[in-house]
Design a protein that fits this description.
By secondary structure, this protein is mostly beta strands. The protein has 3 helices and 24 strands.
Length: 361
């Protein structure tokens, strides 16, 4: 099993705290090649992933890395499965973090970086341009004058690339990152940029870090933390109009359209889902001038004549900009449409919590 699955993507370069760990400092990391072996033991809700990383021990020699077989390693170590995550390249200049002991995988030495619980199947899912929060304690450092590569989300949140991946695109090199934006297709309101640092950039994480990945599995860390303070409870009353478009992901349905209402104002919606046992299961992205919201929906459907009606529940999972840290109770969702998918009428009601003031209507 050479391809990684989503848990490997979410854990890439995570460097979280481990039991009985010691703090290590590593320099000379800019464009340093590394690889990871991720052991998954058990099944959710009683599963956990153990992350092993070559950094500080070797530069992941291609001959040894290419000789590894995930299925054989899983049998050898008694794992549910093994994920091979690499090769990748760090972009910071130096790092410090808590690490554990060393093990050899068929002659390739790696250091234990993390043991992470996997409570649900959702922990194995990573969607591009969607936040993933990871428990870890580490510090990344980029020196003054270093060129950095960033994603800017709706509302102005900035994520700096901490590592680039050669998993999907083996040709990708450091020199290619300046023009990478032309090859990415981020959601509405997101953009890729590159710049030189006027001052040192220091990202210190004591407990949790927020990361996203693009569709090439490059990993970025949020620079600005979520707002502190009270998160008021706000009524959600939205309506929308949607229509089906050719799906970007085979085997899915995709709707796009507009939404409006309290407390967010006017915005757009993109939904990607699948039909499973008489219901629609999917994720969606709401984009507003001052931020965006990602959520999940599950809605049984009925067909009568030339109409289809969905009625179910949804939850907000994460947000950017003004809606960073957003969460919600179960939201009531009703969507009616013609069978050709071109005349959707959507309503969403419930309550959400977030710290910033709502956008203008």
């Amino acid at each position: 099993m050479r391809r990684t699955c989503a848990v490997a993507l979410a854990l890439a370069a995570s460097w979280p705290a481990v039991a009985r760990a010691e703090v290590r400092e590593s320099g000379g990391l800019h464009d340093a090649r590394y690889c990871e072996v991720i052991e998954v033991k058990g099944v959710p809700p009683n599963a956990h992933a153990i992350v092993w990383n070559t950094i500080g021990l070797n530069r992941c020699p291609a001959a040894r890395w290419n000789a590894l077989d995930a299925t054989e390693l899983a049998k050898e170590h008694g794992d549910t499965l093994v994920l091979l995550n690499g090769p990748r390249h760090f972009l910071m200049d130096s790092a410090s973090g808590e690490t554990g002991g060393v093990r050899s995988f068929r002659g390739l030495r790696m250091r234990r970086l993390a043991t992470i619980p996997l409570r649900t199947a959702a922990d194995l899912v990573q969607t591009p341009y969607t936040d993933r929060t990871i428990r870890r304690a580490n510090t990344w450092r980029w020196g003054r004058g270093r060129r950095v590569f960033e994603l800017v989300a709706p509302g102005g949140d900035v994520y700096v690339m901490q590592s680039y991946s050669q998993i999907r695109e083996p040709w990708l090199r450091l020199a290619d990152l300046r023009s990478l934006g032309g090859q990415l297709t981020p959601p509405p309101g997101w953009r890729y940029r590159t710049r030189r640092l006027r001052d040192e950039l220091l990202l210190a994480v004591k407990h949790r870090a927020t990361i996203v990945q693009d569709e090439l599995q490059n990993t970025y860390q949020l620079v600005t933390p979520a707002p502190d303070g009270e998160r008021p409870r706000r009524a959600v009353e939205m309506t929308g109009r949607t229509h089906s478009v050719p799906p970007t992901t085979p085997g899915t349905v995709e709707d796009r359209g507009t939404v409006r209402g309290a407390p967010f104002g006017r915005g757009s919606i993109q939904l990607i889902g699948r039909f499973v046992d008489g219901r629609l299961e999917g994720t969606y992205r709401l984009t507003f001038p001052n931020g965006s919201i990602v959520g999940r929906v599950r809605a049984p459907f009925e067909i009568a004549g030339d109409r289809i009606r969905f009625e179910g529940r949804s939850r907000f999972l994460a947000g950017t900009g003004a809606y960073r840290g957003i969460s919600s109770s179960a939201l009531d969702v009703v969507d009616t449409n013609t069978l050709d998918g071109q005349n959707g009428r959507l309503s969403v009601t419930g309550f959400a919590r977030y710290a910033e003031s709502p956008g203008a209507g």
